[in-house]
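Bit of a strange request maybe. I'm writing a small parser for structure token strings and I need a real example to test against, not something I typed by hand. Could someone generate the tokens for this chain?
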Amino acid sequence: MSNEFPIEELYACDRCGTELPGDLMAFMDNGEVLCPDCYDDVSQDSILNSAQNNFIPRGVALDNAFNRLRFIRNLPPDLGRKFISSLNSGIDPLADPNLMRQTKGLKIKNFNAIVVKTANTNLSSICCMGIVFVRDGKIIGKYHSLVRPEPDYYQWHCQSAPWMKPEDTKNAPTFKKAWNKIRNNLKDDEPFVAYNASLTEQCMKTAFNTFKMEDRGFLFCDILKASKNYFGQRLPDFRLKTVASACGYELSDNHNAIDEAEACAAITLRTMPVSALL
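Reply from user aminoacidic:
Good idea to test on real output. This should exercise your parser:
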């Protein structure tokens, strides 16, 4: 990046059109002129590309490589560059106490909050799902779908969505059809967060197997565990509604899966450390 420019002249960002004095712009080696915001975006992309090129070819197990990519994606650009610089110098940044100390207090900001409900004791009997997509700490999209459970029957004493009835999902899509509507929008290095993540993960894996679908090995982070570590003894209980309220999200009594997913997103942004991605 060159630093030679006339300070008094205004330059337009080639990406967003913002006009600023030359001393505030980034003049890239490829000829692009970028404002600070667009430069940060390009820097973050560069970090991730460098991470992928350096982590994976060195024989790191694929799951571990994706964990590291997830970790870097959730770091501020300047800190991410330090991690990549350390790696390029032959030093494992995760073993550098000075670098890791700088991640203390940082929360994950790129994730998918998911809630699934089952109709009976079978883990594959997903009858509805709600997903909230969070990027850079902001909700950018939501997805809610009723699902025809497999096997297709309800047990009132064990279903996790007591407000639902068989007629609600009689004409609903199968899990495979509902999932395929969003599968191409999901990246392997973007984690899922869920309340009691191990159960949610088991339901998803069982459904993938039942419908002979690809299991892409998504990472599931447990919101319940993060909440207990964050709040300690300060809450009367750790029901989703209680924790969500403590994080500024009021969950009504008449809620559905997407409402719970939004609550999960709010809790994650408040309580989930970036270290949960490693």
